[in-house]
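Please, structure for the following, as tokens.
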Amino acid sequence: MKNIPTELLRTFTTIVDLGGFTLAGASLGRSQPAISLQVKRLEELLDITVFERNNGLQVTEEGEVLLGFARRMLDINDSAVTRLAKSRISGQVRLGIPNDFEVSFLPRLLSQFGQAHPEVALEVNCDLSVTLLNDFQKGNYDLVLATASLEETLQVNSDDEFHETIVWVTNGHFNWSTNQPIPLVVYPTGCRYRQQIISKLNAAGIAWRIAYSSSSLLGIQAAIEAGLGISALARSTVPAGFHSHLQLEDSPQLGFVKLVFKHDRGNQSDATSRLYEYLYTGLEQSAS
């Protein structure tokens, strides 16, 4: 029976997640030729092709099957290493995250954290970032991940920041007639993406209308899928099955948003510190 080295699987999943050999190499601390060699070793070991290289870097059907197994195997490996290498931690952490991160990479990270630290109780709440930051100041959260515009970040006094590209999100079949106001699917007033969309469209002189507004991510997704309009999200949070665009027809590029962590470094539990480490590392890799 063949054994698949986890280092090969980690290289493979990192290439898929970051979208290229060079970015994966930078993240893993390896050269691009070394990354290519590891992929070749993986393909030779399993006698399959994981990437279709004739038309960009596309994962093959066999590669998709392997990707599912690879993620599960790495999750188990990382949980085991973390659990055995560090002391047991207990307690409760009150975590606040933006609505759109609810179904992106955070659930996988929280699952890994839960497996590694089963005695830590997580209380997770999703809301608009402006609400999360206000509630953090009131002492309602131990750790908050929030979005902020480039200008607002200077006032937020965040502990850690990452840039994320904002992209237009469609169902893949959206047709916008340029002589009609562009229909928008957005979160309620106070959402950073909503502010950024409207500001950019106004600056470009493009007419718009609010076609659908919801505080629920599922509501936003359903409206986009139904063709009611288009929306915008951080690129790493675009759900599977939807299409992301830096620019759509004559619409402007939306620029960047900053993701910020808020926590009290000098007065927090070991459980909060450990959860922050998990989320920081995951976000750092995603935003690379």
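The chain has ten helices and eleven strands. The mean pLDDT is 84.
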